[in-house]
Amino acid sequence: MIQRVLRRSSARDSQTGGDSDANTAVRLDGVTHSYGSAGGRLDADRDPTVIALRDVALTCDSGETVGLEGPSGSGKSTILHAIAGLLVPTAGSVEILGTDITRLSDHERTRLRRRHVGIVFQRFHLLPSLSARANVALPLVQAGVPRSTRRERATTLLSDVGLSGRATHLPSELSGGECQRVAIARALATDPDVIVADEPTGELDTETGSTVLELLTDVGSDRAVVVASHDDDTLAITDRVVTLRDGSVMSDGG
Ligand code: ADP
Ligand code: MG
Q1: Could you read off the pLDDT of 43-98 as tens digits, one per residue?
Q2: Structural domains of the chain, ranges and CATH numbers in brackets
Q3: pLDDT tens for each residue of 9-24
Q4: Which residues cross the membrane (predicted)?
């Protein structure tokens, strides 16, 4: 039911699309990003300009799960942030459901993200003062879903990730793996068309990891998932693996 409500209009219907294939949910083209310039954050201890991505091209179709692998610092998180519209790359285009989000205003980009993209951050980013259930329900608040529906949906999702007994706990009262599962449940709350997940199983045992991966990828659905991981079990469930080195795509399709 909530799926219907939240999918009532896709970005393809409501916004001027590019000329992407109808099935391409995510398309990066010529994406270059430097931190420390063009609005990137500057850290005095680093080189003033760090080139994190160099001319990256990447696609993920609806219904596809793409893995991103590569050593620490190779640009995985930067790509996920660009897909989620949390940063605008220095150059290149990032199309989500046919819309180049680099051309949107901040407000429009945020709106598109809230409607269509779920994010699992590497460090979870749970709000410390909110219970597990309230954290999971937060994207539904932003989407304007009524309170009773939010509560029901958040309760179901917590149970799906094996945390029924933890709904009223604060993040500080949960283990790392439990926080990770709350973050995953939150990313699923709006049943998004696109999910980006940064090392989503890093804190989980193999069995729990595969359960949450099944939830994230929602096999048989048209959800597009881009997942950064070092974990072979995680990469094994992807349809395609893209390998990065120093901000460049080394191979695509391994
Ligand atoms: P990965 O996720 O593969 O470890 P990242 O995308 O986090 O890689 O980082 C790519 C490069 O960008 C690294 O050299 C990293 O040090 C740099 N970087 C990441 N975030 C920032 C930032 N906020 N400010 C400056 N440099 C950054
Ligand atoms: Mg990273």
Answers
A1: 555 556 889 999 999 999 999 999 999 999 999 999 999 999 999 999 999 999 99
A2: 24-252 (3.40.50.300)
A3: 344 444 444 445 779 9
A4: none
Residue 176 structure tokens: 């790392």
CB 121 within 8 A of CB 183: yes
Q: Cβ distance 102 to 94 under 8 Å?
A: yes
- The answer to whether 185 and 214 have CB atoms below 8 angstroms apart is no
pLDDT of residue 254: 60
- Which residue's C-alpha comes closest to atom 26 of ligand 1? 35
Q: What is the pTM of this model?
A: 0.89
Distance 176 CA to ligand 2 centre (A): 17
